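Incident log, structure service

09:12 report received: a user says their structure output differs between two submissions of the same chain.
09:20 pulled the input from the user's history:
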Amino acid sequence: MSPEVGIVAALALVSVLGVVCSIHLLRRAPDWPVRILTILLGLMPIYHTISAAVETRVIYFPTADRWRIVSDLTINVLLLISIFLLEFSVEEGRKFRVQLRVMEAAAAVGSPASRPFTVARAESNPALSAAQLTDEA
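09:34 re-ran on a clean worker, output below:
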């Protein structure tokens, strides 16, 4: 057995472990950007293992050069898309945290936003009767 076969076998073992970890993280991922990135990170060790096996001639693939270029392009495009989706996810999370802080501050001060809608509306418009408020609620 040549040393290349041992190296490719070690790469295959690492890629299997990477796929298992990726599947585990994929099931726990909170949103799509993280899932896409997890899939890419799971596929990268497999891709490198196959590339190493083709380069060391452990396996034979006659059109390996052509497909390597296509697979490199595909992985880079998916990585770019996942980076944009992650940026969008981080921005949405930031907006949500800011809205949550505003709501918490409003509740702490005791503003009408922290009270039920009908009570706040009755205080702002005393002409409304109790019957009108209960019908709308």
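09:41 both user submissions now match this output. Likely a transient worker issue. Closing.
09:42 reviewer note: The chain has one domain: 3-136. The helical segments are 3-28, 32-55, 64-109, 117-124, 130-136.
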